[in-house]
Design a protein that fits this description.
The chain starts with a helix and ends with a helix. With 116 residues, the protein is an all-alpha fold. It is 38% helix and 0% strand. It has 4 helices and no strands. It is elongated and about 55 Å long. It has one domain.
């Protein structure tokens, strides 16, 4: 195993997720982050307004509630991405997306602290 090559690749992936391609895939962080993730609670208006089925589908702007740190599904097969809450394939928030990022960040922090 070439540790340097693998570390460089992991850092490249983290940079990609946070915006090296011109936009981030993490809500609320990085370069031009997603504002319209496919997430019911995030899409609902501020209380006491009602959040009925279909309300978010008609809203053109960002989701009223920001889920800071949530990772969206990411790019399509051609590396394209559109911040569209109705495109659940690329804009769904899911814990497993965050899990991989958390693991990679933890390792980078560990490596950084070992080099001090």
């Amino acid at each position: 195993i070439d540790e340097t090559t693998n570390r460089d690749w992991a850092m490249q992936q983290l940079d990609y997720a946070m915006g090296s391609v011109g936009h981030s895939y993490m809500v609320g962080f990085g370069v031009d982050p997603p504002e319209r993730p496919h997430h019911r609670s995030s899409s609902c208006p501020d209380p006491p307004a009602s959040c009925t089925d279909g309300w978010a589908e008609t809203q053109p702007g960002p989701n009223p509630q920001v889920i800071y740190g949530g990772m969206v599904g990411g790019p399509d097969l051609d590396d394209g991405y559109v911040d569209d809450r109705m495109d659940y394939m690329h804009n769904e928030l899911a814990c497993d997306y965050n899990a991989a990022l958390t693991g990679a960040l933890s390792k980078m922090i560990m490596l950084h602290s070992d080099n001090k």
